[in-house]
Design brief:
It contains 14 helices and four strands. It is mostly helical. The longest helix is centred in the first third of the chain and has 28 residues. It is globular and about 55 Å long. It comes from Verticiella sediminum.
């Protein structure tokens, strides 16, 4: 039972990092992306490849994963400069489809559909991080660092500029803001920080393949943000906890057909999002804080 709780808590921390970083562009820049799982995957594959072929030190692999994801995020940032709203969602969906194809076919780097196996344990200053408690500590520390960094950015002038662009790009232009640069930087920061979760995930499982980085993952992350509350600090974390606890709760409901648990989960996620959009558009945390959208 303890092993199950530790595993669930570790995966919660990983997904919370992803939800927080997605909320950075969704909730504060107004950029709705269906490609966040791409940068999760880029971070995971970069860290795994370096761990297998160079060094397993997180002081090397995590910064490298962030760098690669940040650079590749320009493929998402450039469409963000030219299109808005549903057009950008379509552009990000296209990037997600392309990335999944690359993850599946680039055997030399990603291992193809079979993925990368035998990823060595994470190392920190010469010490291997193997024990479940130690790994939970690494995942939780990653979450704390990401939350602290995003919070600091949002409370700075950069964060105020992001909110101004979200509310009205035209007004931001009128006040002399460099909208293109601000939007590009926000996407790069979000993607680079998401790569941290990818690196931690790769080390934790010692195996990764494309199935973890598909459109389903991107949609689930968006659901976590929306249900928890976009544009709030705690919302993505609350949404992550709720949506990761639901499968566990469903599995203990003896009256539900166990073979259909996956489908029931998807229905529950969709129903929760619809009801929240109707009655609590600000999400759970947003409703508690009095937000209406």
């Amino acid at each position: 039972m303890l092993a199950y709780v530790l595993n669930l808590a570790t995966l919660m921390c990983v997904n919370a990092v992803l939800a927080v970083t997605l909320n950075f562009i969704m909730g504060y820049a107004g950029i709705f992306s269906l490609a966040h799982a791409v940068f999760f995957g880029v971070g995971a594959y970069t860290a795994a490849y370096l761990a297998l072929n160079a060094s397993a030190s997180i002081l090397l692999t995590i910064p490298a994963a962030m760098l690669v994801a940040g650079v590749l995020s320009l493929a998402l940032a450039l469409p963000a400069l030219r299109v808005r709203g549903e057009y950008f969602v379509a552009a990000s969906l296209g990037l997600q489809v392309i990335a999944v194809t690359i993850f599946s076919e680039w055997h030399a780097v990603t291992g193809g559909l079979g993925g990368l196996v035998g990823i060595p344990p994470a190392e920190l200053l010469g010490h291997e991080i193997i024990e479940p408690w130690a790994f939970l500590g690494l995942a939780f520390t990653s979450l704390v660092v990401v939350v602290a960094l995003t919070t600091a950015l949002l409370r700075s002038s950069f964060g105020r500029n992001l909110k101004a662009i979200r509310d009205s790009e035209s007004a931001a232009y009128a006040y002399g803001k460099n909208v293109a640069a601000i939007k590009t930087l926000s996407v790069v920061v979000s993607s680079a920080l998401a790569a941290i979760a990818g690196a931690v995930y790769a080390y934790y499982l010692s195996f990764i393949n494309v199935e973890s980085f598909t459109l389903d993952t991107s949609v689930l992350l968006m659901a976590m943000v929306i249900i928890g509350g976009t544009g709030t600090i705690a919302g993505p974390v609350v949404g992550t906890i709720l949506l990761m606890l639901l499968p566990s709760l469903f599995s203990y409901m003896w009256f539900l057909p166990q073979s259909e648990i996956g489908a029931i989960q998807q229905i529950a996620y969709g129903l929760a999002m619809v009801l929240l959009m109707i009655f609590r558009p600000g999400g759970i945390v947003g409703a508690l804080q009095g937000k209406t959208r």
